[in-house]
Structure formats: structure tokens, C-alpha cells
């Protein structure tokens, strides 16, 4: 079996976003795990309009060209780690919108989160876990929560994320869970395809 391919999704598109910092940090740690392949996926590269299709792509093919390109990109991966900024006790609108613009491409794949902001982005992550379940994903228990004090120390240039042992431990725990579930679910999805082919023969 080929190595599972994991996307690290940059969950904010603001010009002044903090997201690039945790993305670069978690990607470096993830790439040190030899049993997975890692790619950074930036939502800035997929300027999706606010959802404006006649229905979910689970039922009707999307007409928007960027949506089609986004769905093809999502389909390439066996698992996802999302950065989750917390705005007003919830995730960014652009990330929720990106989740809504795909459907079957998310199914039966693990999802993990790197939260930051108030209480380490925990409230945003909890909401995203519910969205992930509805999209038939397998959200991991392990997550990274960059609390406000750590966030400010990094934002002000006093420290790097890699200076915090508790964050490094959380990151490795998250990646290990994502890798385990990605492998297991990849095998299961491939078995489903073989079963469908056998039925059709």
C-alpha cells in the first residue's frame, strides 16, 4: 500500500493571518514521520464564493470552476489537518465554506485540528468536529490548542512554536493518530472499491 497522503489545510485567508506560522511548524513535524506524505493546501489558492450552488455536490455536480478544482484537490488526500482560528467562539467562515463545497471527497477519511485563539481555539475545533462527522469523516481525539499566552509570545516574536514542549508533544500525538486512521481507512476504502467491482462483474 502506498503511503497515505495528508493535507495540511490553511484555514484562514486574511492578509494578516497567523495561520502560516502553525502550518509551517506542524508541516515540519509531520514530514519527519516517514509513514505519510504531506502537502500544504492553502485556501487562498481556491477563492471559492460563498456557497451558491443549487445543492450540495453530494447530490448535484458543482458548476463553479473553482469548486470543481477544490473538489479534485480534496479527493487527492487520505486525511486532513486543518488550522482552526477561533472567531467569536467559532471557526472561520472561509473554512466552513470550503468544507461545504465538497462532499464525498471527505468521506471515510480522518480529520485533525490545530486550534488557536481564545482557549486555544477549542470552541472552533469542537464545531469543526461536528461538521466533520456530518461529512462522514473521522475526527481525531488528539488536537493541538495554541492558547492565548503562547499565541501572543509567538506573535510578538518572543518565542517560536517549536519552543513549547507541550505543543510539540500535542503535534506528534495528533500526527500519529492521523497516520493510523489514514492507513486503516485507506485499506477499508480500497476494500469497498474491490467489493463494488466484484458485484459489478
UniProtKB/TrEMBL annotation:
GO terms for molecular function: FMN binding; oxidoreductase activity. It comes from the Bacteria. Signal peptide: none annotated. SUPFAM superfamilies: Flavoproteins. Residues 4-143 form the NADPH-dependent FMN reductase-like domain. It holds the Pfam family FMN_red. One of its GO terms (cellular component) is cytosol. InterPro entries: Flavoprotein-like_sf, FMN_Rdtase-like_dom, NAD(P)H-dep_reductase. This is NAD(P)H-dependent oxidoreductase. It comes from Aminobacter anthyllidis. The lineage of its organism: Bacteria, Pseudomonadati, Pseudomonadota, Alphaproteobacteria, Hyphomicrobiales.
Amino acid at each position: 500500500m502506498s503511503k497515505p497522503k495528508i493535507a495540511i489545510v490553511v484555514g484562514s485567508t486574511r492578509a494578516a493571518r497567523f495561520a502560516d506560522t502553525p502550518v509551517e511548524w506542524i508541516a515540519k513535524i509531520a514530514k519527519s514521520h516517514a509513514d505519510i506524505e504531506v502537502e500544504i493546501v492553502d485556501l487562498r489558492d481556491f477563492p471559492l464564493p460563498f456557497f451558491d450552488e443549487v445543492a450540495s455536490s453530494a447530490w448535484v455536480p458543482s458548476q463553479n470552476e473553482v469548486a470543481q478544482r477544490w473538489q479534485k484537490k480534496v479527493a487527492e488526500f487520505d486525511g486532513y489537518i486543518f488550522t482552526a482560528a477561533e472567531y467569536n467562539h467559532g471557526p472561520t467562515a472561509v473554512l466552513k465554506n470550503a468544507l461545504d463545497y465538497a462532499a464525498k471527497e471527505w468521506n471515510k477519511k480522518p480529520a485533525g485540528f490545530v486550534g488557536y485563539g481564545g482557549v486555544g481555539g477549542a470552541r472552533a475545533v469542537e464545531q469543526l468536529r461536528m461538521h466533520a462527522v456530518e461529512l462522514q469523516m473521522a475526527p481525531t481525539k488528539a488536537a493541538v490548542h495554541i492558547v492565548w499566552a503562547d499565541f501572543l509570545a509567538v506573535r510578538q516574536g518572543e518565542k517560536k512554536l517549536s519552543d513549547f514542549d507541550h505543543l510539540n508533544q500535542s503535534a506528534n500525538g495528533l500526527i500519529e493518530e492521523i497516520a493510523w486512521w489514514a492507513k486503516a481507512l485507506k485499506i477499508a476504502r480500497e476494500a469497498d472499491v474491490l467489493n463494488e467491482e466484484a458485484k459489478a462483474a
